[in-house]
Amino acid sequence: MAPTNVNDPHHYHKVVDCQYACPAHTNVPGYLRLIAQGRYTDSYLMNRASNVFPGILGRTCDRPCEPACRRGRVDGKPVAICRLKRVAADLRDDITDQLPTAPAVKNGKRVALVGAGPSALTVANDLLPLGYDVTIYEKNAQPGGLMRVNIPSFRLPAKVLDDECGYIINMGATMKYGTEVSSMKALLAEGYDAVYVGSGAPKGKELDIEGRWDESAKPNIHIGIEWLANVHFEHVEKIGKRVVIIGVGNTAMDCCRTAKRVGATDVKVIARRSRKYFKASPWELEDAEEEQVAILENHAPKRFVIENGKLVGMEFEQLAWSEEGGKQVSKVAGTVIIPCDDVILAIGQDNAFPWIERDLGLEFDQWEMPVVDKVTHQSTRADVFFGGDAAWGPQNIIWAVEHGHQAAISIHNHCSAAPVTERLEYGMNLVSAKLGMQSWSYHNDFNPSPRQKMTHEELVKRFSSVNVEVELGYTPEQTALEVQRCLNCDVETHFTDKLCIECDACVDVCPVSCLTIAVVGDEADLRTRLSAPAANMTQDIFVSGALPQTKRVMVKDEDICLHCGLCAERCPTAAWDMRKFDLLVPYAGATLESIVSTHIASAGAAR
Amino acid sequence: MTSIQKPQVRHPGLPKNTLGYTKRDYEGAMSTLCAGCGHDSVTAALIQAFWELDLPPNRAAKMSGIGCSSKTTAYFMKQSHGFNSVHGRMPSVTSGASAANRGLTYIGISGDGDSLSIGMGQLCHAIRRNVRMLYVIENNGVYGLTKGQFSASADIGSTSKKGEANVQPPIDPALLALSLGATFVARSFSGDKTQLVPILKAGLMHDGFALIDVISPCVSFNDHEGSTKSYRFTREHEVEMTEVDFVPIRHEITTADSDAAVTAVQMHDGTVMRFRKTDEGYDPNDREKAYAHVRACQMAGEVATGLLFIQRGGADMHAVARTVERPLVELPYSELCPGKSALDTLMDSYR
Hints:
The structure holds 2 protein chains of 2 kinds. Chain A is of the alpha/beta class.
């Protein structure tokens, strides 16, 4: 196995599991340390640089970072990254004077954004400071897109949305509210230099089974995202006592919990498969069950039961799943009728582009989806870009934000007559965290505290209105403990092979047996010969160059390193050092020099 | 010193021995020795050996005297018995402890100062008595605790950190033990755990006094160019006499020895120690030849390592003194202290 190239940012970036898993590569350990120091505003701003909506995401993020968190592999529960993000957002001071501003003199380029959801707002956020004239078309009267109409306000209060959308819009975006774009041709005719489509995936999927189109039943069968929007706009204020939700994704969770707040008392969520295949995040399932929503597994919808011109229930096939040739197959074990007054369909969303004419040089594939480049977000028409759910179907908010950042780079290139493929790569800063003898610029001790539990509003109070926020946020005590659970994975173990005297001190002191001095071999072989077997193939192993005395190599399994720095403290020759890693993420308008200088400033602030 | 204690969390995949312990359960307090000290590696090798042998920590006693080496008993098996004695008196204290309780496993840790200067006489008599114990000398050739003066094991010509050469001849603990009739003599190196761990295990299972001289470099005062006890010098001048492989009784030997140079030695409890001669003509069962060979290496500036000599079945202190079979603590009071009439009878027998 060749020595690991730690000069390529990829190795150390991958060690910071949370940041690597985050689509927007938010510097999680960096902002958690700022929270630990009580610097909530700085923490919020560090967050905002990459994920743009810390307050919103601190309540609603799909949290790809948490399943990836190293702490989860150490004691079973990841750091509550998302909750801590909310702490920074809730406790920040006024930040308006620290936000990016648009220059007085514009660059003369005009960009139209379709939709004021998270991806389009991110594009605006990145382009406005560069002097672009940005016009946003939004069919509703307020910005936010799905974040406003589909996420119930007991999870995301309107104030949080207003603030964070406002930061961007107030930089000087021209807002065209209540304006649904009905023709791409007409939009292009207005002479924009670029158009960004961030209109989401606004069409809920249908369930075309017996009884669906029965006139008498129709008023009691709802499409999940439409129904949520109707509740938001107060077009719908109540629902029947007994409600059945079809589907078990996060929209289904929002539907069942909203139903409990508008009059339903008996709510059942019906899933085709068993729990381990559920699409909803585990914490959303837990929150729904806490609100006494029943979740039924292995039931497939068969028909709507209509009696005397009224929907009275739904019939389901009870499925028994088994494995055949590595595939899950189902057998019908029987049928059951579940009585109900209303049914909400939450089985997925589709994109729909009836408003884009097909003769504009914009190609669509066999599924009527636009052909969009995965990296540049450019369509087959050079001046039209797609992002968010509009690009490749429903994902989540944090992915939409990252799409916005990438599309903004492309739009900036396109408007500057540079190829959209000309993109800066990630860079890194790596600075020693050593302050003196056994003294580091971070808190290196391991805190054995368990993950802190979020306090919830009591049930009676929360069912009283759709607008009562359920999660009350961490107390200062909980925050202080939870931030200490972070292992500071961005303070990297850095090894200089020519300094090593092979005294074994690091190998002996490592509390989690992740170091070994071994005769070199190929990776598969090396992984079996370490102090503890390196069985987690998703985690890389570090291999040094040949050591001076015996020509063996230093091997580190990155899997569960605590970043406690004991290897560096026990190293007599400073062959091991702890070095603070900063990923340099290029945004629209960045040059090599500008990203380095911005990040040096932020690295200084993070100390 | 370290800024923090070693976190209690361990690798979830760490294997357990038959007692249900992981290696980490055999650890002790955090080391306060210099970073990179060879003694810490010896500690880690001991922990590995105890774990592999399924040694119950509550049935072991850690014995030491004074010096950097003697601090290390604090750094392993925190659950065990222990006695940190006066400088150089560890062999005698262990003799006494063993006399009273022969049921424990005695682990004596000493250094070149503690054993070859102030405690030399104590060591010699423990070897003579054949006290059943593991006796580890962490040998670095300097008095590290008092800032690097030459010790009795420093070689002629070896220099101090400031460049001054040693002129007095060294005492080689292995040669000393061989000449005094020790039944188990070995030498190893803290920087080579693949060699050290099996030797420690064999020493722990030996039914008599087992002396292991471990070259354990002092990073602060004796790991420089002119040193003959540095990591680099030892690696470059080490000559391995025998390669030891220790097979505990319940582990079946699955590979047949096709190698004629392999010798299997049955230990007293049925475990098997196998060793392979890596040096042509070396015989670890012949005391005179072993002595000559180790001495020849010394004269040639080489460091003979491995199992240097073993003699099975020698009478240990208890056998020679024909003491009672059981530890004194297990004897009923009536037997331990039979009373005035028994004393009178005994006294009469001397008249």
